[in-house]
Amino acid sequence: MAETARKIVNHSNIRKQTTTQIDLLDVQKKKFKRRERLAVCVSLGWAALLGCVTISSSIHVNTAQSDLQAVTTQVTKLNSKNSNIRQEISELSSRSRLMGIAKKDGLSLNEQNTRNVTK
Fold this sequence. Notes:
By secondary structure, the chain is mainly alpha-helical. It is built from two helices and no strands.
């Protein structure tokens, strides 16, 4: 019986120690919870800021690509026009055409007095 009483007393002492340890753990957990909440809030804010910056830069890149594509299209059109005009100049200044116009107006070409000059 004495042993049973000792076991009960020891058991109650263990319970007291355990509850005080649990209370200390709860206090530490609360401190960590506050710090963790702050860390999570800061991390979420940082992630949201980076997301906004990423979206904004993506929009700017897409706008720049659109502008570049429009300018490239204009350059291609102008190059095509220039090529067509050069071809037309070449056709209008061909030797056979000039000879036909000269004959129509009664002119003749003296080959001995002709000199070709190249740039």
